[in-house]
Specification:
The protein is α+β, with helices and mostly antiparallel strands and about 500 residues long. It contains eleven helices and 20 strands. The chain has helices at about 15-30, 100-120, 200-205, 305-315, 320, 345-350, 380-390, 440-450, 460-465, 470-475, 480-490; strands spanning about 1-5, 40, 45-55, 65-75, 80, 95, 125-130, 135, 140-145, 160, 260, 265-270, 290, 335, 365-370, 370-375, 395-400, 400-405, 415, 420. The chain has an eight-stranded mixed sheet with strand order 16-14-9-3-4-18-19-20, with helices on both faces. A two-stranded parallel sheet has the order 1-15. A two-stranded parallel sheet has the order 2-17. Helix 2 (about 100-120) runs parallel beside helix 8 (about 440-450). The longest helix is centred in the N-terminal third of the chain and has 21 residues, at about 100-120. The two termini are about 40 Å apart.
Length: about 500
């Protein structure tokens, strides 16, 4: 695996990242798109830029002594659309989970920063690369990904120990088969099954991360270095068959028995071994690719666990921007807010399934991303809202809107519902105003605008050797990216659901 820059180790804490993101959410995002008080909840994700600051006061030595931390993209949301609502024009958001919204918002930010670089502005995060038309990240910065909750899918299959009092509600055994569950794909229980503990109670307080325990290592859910009981099977090889991917069973630290697992609503993709559905800890199989659930209409959106694992190999920039970059843009760390959490499950889902992938093209690699948990709870998380409303009237539901925010000067905010800007009518869907700024077609327009600002004689070879017109053609022409994606599918993610190419033929 490829290790990230050394400044990930000491220059920030998980709580600092979480607090920065929560403050940004409170102060920079409008009321529009946020959950209705005491009735709705949502998920939050963001990308934080961490940059070294040189100290020029000590004999002019330029020795780095501190860092600045800045939120450069943010997303909220819990929904995704069903297969029947997908459009070939690229103007709808298929997946509006917070993690995906944050990443697409980050791509908007990268477009803007490349505009600055092409205009030779010194405040860009990019500097010229070694080849014509290519740019690379400044060496003094990195990006940290934050999510208020564990990503849906494999990372959310968390062992539940018999002695523990969880800070959020345990999931009922029939949840994954319950058609009334919203398409949020995450692991918290329906509110009518069991009320959350009062977040101020002694029982809940003791489950917070204790002083002296390293950030990100939940004291109640790490299987590492255990001295008694069987060790759960390792998912160390990407060549394991799905039958060999064991269920989460066995003994936990200090001999505590795993009595159940938190469930994920994400379903196994066709071609993968299915979940057993057995009661208790054997309910799920781990390490599998999963698709987000829909309400009656199946989705084509892969789980956030799977997408984060893919970004950890291919980068967050996508195929289009790879035309202009010397190397992919990787996340150096992932921080999760306070929620049911397992370090083991996070590492398995985000890095373990891909760790033996090899023969990737130059510049690409499986990153050794740092994974930590904060002890700070998101105020609009399901558990926080449920604790505040106590026995309030009505049903607690996920917020239907998604908010996108990017650190760009023009129209940084974008609020959507059902994949379109909030308030869009059926008649208005075909209007240009009825496009999210982070939809495929709008990000493609942004990329084309970026190219038009650069003289053609300064374009990279990948854009000069053939005439490209459609979104699909531009993506396919990013040959190194496509080769890396092909290698990853062949060696680790062979069952990944891909949209047919006719969904990418727009211009």
């Amino acid at each position: 695996m490829v290790r990230g820059p050394a400044l990930t180790q000491t220059m920030w804490t998980a709580d600092e990242i979480a607090r920065l993101c929560y403050e940004h959410y409170e102060t920079r995002l409008p009321k529009k798109g946020k959950p209705e008080p005491n009735r709705e909840w949502t998920l939050l994700a963001a990308v934080v830029k961490v940059q070294l600051v040189a100290d020029r006061a000590c004999g002019g030595s330029n020795r780095p002594t501190q860092v600045t931390k800045e939120v450069v993209s943010m997303g909220t949301g819990t929904k995704c659309i069903g297969q029947s609502k997908m459009r070939k024009s690229g103007d709808i958001l298929n997946d509006s989970h917070a993690e995906v919204i944050a990443r697409r918002s980050f791509q908007r930010y990268l477009h803007y920063q490349l505009h600055l670089a092409a205009a030779l502005k010194e405040d860009s995060i990019f500097v010229p690369g070694t080849q014509r038309g290519l740019w690379k990240l400044r060496p003094d910065l990195l990006f940290v990904f934050f999510s208020s909750h564990t990503p849906c899918g494999d990372a959310s299959i968390i062992p539940m120990l018999e002695f523990e009092d969880q800070p959020c509600c345990p999931v009922s055994r029939d949840w994954a088969n319950n058609p009334s569950v919203e398409a949020d794909g995450n692991l918290e229980a329906p509110e009518n099954k069991k009320k959350c503990e009062d977040l101020g109670s002694p029982v809940t307080k003791k489950m917070r991360l204790e002083p002296g325990i390293p950030d990100g290592v939940g004291h109640h859910q790490s299987f590492g270095n255990q001295e008694s009981g069987p060790i759960p099977p390792s998912i160390s090889g990407s060549n394991l068959t799905t039958q060999e991917l064991a269920t989460v069973t066995g003994m936990a630290p200090s001999g505590a028995k795993v009595v159940d697992v938190y469930r994920t609503g994400a379903k196994c993709v066709p071609g993968e071994a299915g979940d057993s559905g057995k009661p208790g800890a054997a309910y799920h199989q781990v390490g599998l690719l999963r698709v987000k659930p829909g309400r009656g209409d199946r989705t084509c959106s892969m789980s956030c666990s799977d997408k984060l694992a893919r970004w950890n190999v291919l980068g967050c920039q996508g195929a289009l921007l790879m035309h202009l970059l010397e190397k992919p843009i990787y996340l150096s760390a992932v921080v999760i807010g306070r929620c049911p959490y397992s370090q083991e499950a996070m590492q398995r889902a985000l890095t373990g399934r891909c760790q033996n992938v090899s023969a990737l093209p130059k510049g690409f690699g499986v990153q050794e991303v740092k994974i930590q948990q904060s002890g700070l709870l998101f105020e609009h998380s399901r558990c926080a809202v449920q604790a505040k409303r106590a026995d309030g009237p009505g049903r607690l539901v996920p917020c239907g809107a998604a908010i996108s925010w990017s650190a760009v000067p023009e129209q940084p905010l974008d609020v959507t519902a059902n994949g379109f800007p909030q308030g869009t009518t059926k008649k208005g869907i075909r209007c240009l105003q009825a496009r999210s700024r982070i939809s495929k077609v709008e990000l493609f327009r942004s990329f084309q605008k970026l190219l038009s600002s650069i003289s053609e004689d300064k374009w990279p070879d990948s854009l000069r050797i053939q005439k490209l017109e459609t979104y699909h053609e531009y993506k396919e022409a990013a040959s190194a990216y496509q080769e890396a994606w092909s290698v990853l599918r062949k060696q680790a993610f062979g069952s990944w659901i891909r949209n047919p190419s006719d969904y990418h033929q727009f211009k």
